[in-house]
From TrEMBL:
Organism: Neobittarella massiliensis
Protein name: DUF4430 domain-containing protein
Pfam families referenced in this protein's UniProt entry, alphabetically: DUF4430
Domain Transcobalamin-like C-terminal intervals: 69-132
InterPro entries: Transcobalamin-like_C
Stored PROSITE patterns: PROKAR_LIPOPROTEIN
Length: 135
């Protein structure tokens, strides 16, 4: 009987610690998640094809996140997933999954760690959408 009570107590404490860790993680994410800049801004999006051809698109917007700008201007199409917009088509060019192609989102040449929907924008930002082959 004493052994069972001890097991229940350990289980309850463990569950409480797990819950506290989850809530703490969520609060930290909400506090430190990238925030978009409010107000009018201008951004540039460069589309880079497999052969190196580049097209540059400049947008004026008051949106806070890149995904909203790209979809509103019909530059990209894709699928909504658990992490936001998964870009499958850019400027009318669809990535061919059978050739392991995908669109890589970078900012100033550095890969971003968020989906386009969660990528904040600021005045003067330059993003690249590069058709990439191979996972």
């Amino acid at each position: 009987m004493k052994h069972t009570l001890r097991q229940k107590l350990i289980l309850a404490v463990s569950a409480f610690i797990l819950l506290a860790a989850c809530v703490g993680g969520w609060l930290l994410y909400r506090r430190y998640a990238p925030q978009g800049q409010t107000g009018d801004k201008q951004i540039t999006v460069q589309v880079i094809q497999l052969d190196g051809d580049r097209d540059s698109h400049t947008y004026r917007t008051d949106e806070a996140y890149l995904g909203a700008v790209l979809t509103a201007n019909h530059l990209v199409a894709g699928e909504e997933g658990a992490y936001g917009l998964f870009i499958t088509t850019v400027d009318g060019v669809a990535a061919d999954q059978s050739r392991q192609q995908w669109w890589c989102l970078t900012k100033g040449g550095e890969q971003v760690n968020t989906s386009a929907d969660q990528t904040p924008i600021a005045d003067g930002d330059t993003f690249e959408l590069t058709l990439t082959e191979g996972y």
